[in-house]
Amino acid sequence: MLAVVKEKPGFGFTLKEVDIPEPKSDEVLVKVKSVGICGTDIPIFKGIRKVDYPLIPGHEFSGIIEKIGEDVRNFNVGDRVVPGLVVHCGCCRYCKMGLESLCDQLYEIGIHVDGAFAEYVVAPEKTLHRLPDNMTFDQGALIDPIASAYRPVRKAAIRSSDVVVIYGPGPIGLYALLIARAEGARKLVVVGTNGDEDRLALAKTMGADLTINAMAQDPVSGIHEFTNGAMADVVIEATGVAAVVETCLKSLRKGGRLSLAGIFHKETTVALGDLVRRELNIRGSICYTWLDFQACINLVADGRMNVDPTVTHKFPLHDIDKALALAFERKSIKIILHPED
After folding, report:
1. Mean pLDDT of the region 336-340
2. 135: how many CB neighbours lie within 10 A of its CB?
3. 3-class DSSP state for residue 124?
4. pLDDT mean over 102-111
5. What is the distance between the alpha carbons of residues 179 and 176, in angstroms, rounded to a whole number?
6. Residue 29: closest CA among 57, 56, 69, 59
7. Fewer CB within 10 Å, N- or C-terminus of the chain?
C-alpha cells in the first residue's frame, strides 16, 4: 500500500510502498477513505516532535472495515467507521473512572503506532464508532479535532447567560465556537492575530458576535467594551501559546472560567495572587473520552454543527507535499487527504 512514512529525525517524510498491516485478534483493518492533517502532525513532519521511527502518522480518519480480528464481536467487514486515536488499557484507575485520556498505559494511533496517512490502518475495536449513513467520510475525519474541542468546552460548563471568548481561530477554536453556540452561549467572541483574517471572517459566518485581531486591537480592551465592562464569563484558550494565558485571565470577570484546549510547549507564569483574589477557575483538557467522541458524532449527524466550511482544501494522499506546504504556511484551516484518489 501507499503510505507516508517518517523514517528518521529531521524535516521531511518518505512516500513509499509498504506492506498492508495485519490486524491483531482485537483489531480491525480499515481502508482509509478520508484523513485530516492535524496541528499535532506538523511538528512530527518538521522533526520537532520525536517519535519512534519509522512511523506512519495520521490520526484524524474514517473509512471502511476491510478485515476483522478473530476476537472482534461488534463490527463487521464493510462497516463504515471512525476510530478515536486514544487507545486505553481499560484497567487502570483512570480508565475505570471514565477518564481514558489520562490512562496510565495510553498510546495514540498515528503518534505512538502507525496511523492513517496510508491506504490501510489497523485500529483496536474499542476505539471504533459507527459512522452514520448521513455523514460523509470527510465529516468523519473531522470528529477527532471536534472532540478535542468538545471536552474543554464542556468543562467550562457554559450557561445561557455566558459571554464566551475563544482565543485562537484554528480548527480547535472554530469547533469550540460551534460547540459553545450549541451549548447555548449568549455571546461569542473569537480572537486571532495577523494572518488569521480569513479564519476570523469564517468565525463570523459560523456565529461569532465579535472577532478581534489582537495585533490591531488590545483584546482585553475590546472585550471590556463589548461587554460594557462585565468581561467574559468563559475563556477557551485554543492557541497553545504560553504568553496568551495571561491575556486570557485578564479577559475574565471575577469568578470566571478559563478552559485550556491548546497544547503548550513552553512554560508560562500565572499571577496566583490575582487568581485567588478574583476566584478564577482554570481547567485543563487533553484529548477526549469514547463518550465525548460519540457525542460529537451525534452533534454533526443531527445537524447541530455545520463543520463543512472548515474544510478548505482536499488532496489525494500522493500530493501530501502540497498539502503540508499549505499547512506549514497557515494558508489552510482543515485539509483532508484521500488515499484512493
Report:
1. 96
2. 18
3. strand
4. 96
5. 5
6. 69
7. C
Q: Indicate whether 238 pLDDT > 90.
A: yes
Separation of alpha carbons 141 and 163, rounded Å: 30
Distance CA 195, CA 216 (A): 12
Give the H/E segment covering residue 256: strand 252-260
> Which whole number is the average pLDDT over 59-64?
98
102 grid coordinates: 489520562
- Residues 2 and 12: their CA atoms lie apart, in Å, by 17
Per-residue pLDDT tens over the stretch 32-41: 999 999 999 9
Q: Pinpoint the alpha helices (H) of 170-284.
A: 171-182, 197-205, 219-226, 244-250, 272-277
For residue 29, give the amino acid letter.
Answer: L
Measured distance CA(341)–CA(336) in Å, rounded = 12
Please state, for a pLDDT cut of 70, what percent of the chain lies above it. 100
Which residue type, as a one-letter code, is found at position 114? D
User: Residue 35 forms beta bridges with which residues?
Assistant: 61, 337
| pLDDT at residue 333 tops 90 | yes
> φ, ψ for residue 112 (rounded to 5)?
-105, -25
pLDDT of residue 246: 95
pTM: 0.95
Peptide bond into 9 cis (omega under 30): no
Cα of 167 vs its chain's centroid, Å: 15
Inter-residue contact 30 to 64 (CB < 8 Å): yes
Buried b / exposed e along 187-224 (16+ C-beta atoms within 10 A): bbbbbbbeebeebbebbeebbbbbbbbbeeeebbebbb
Q: How far apart are CA 71 and CA 23, in angstroms?
A: 11
User: Counting beta carbons within 10 angstroms of the beta carbon of residue 134, is it exposed (0 to 12), middle (13 to 18) or buried (19 or more)?
Assistant: exposed
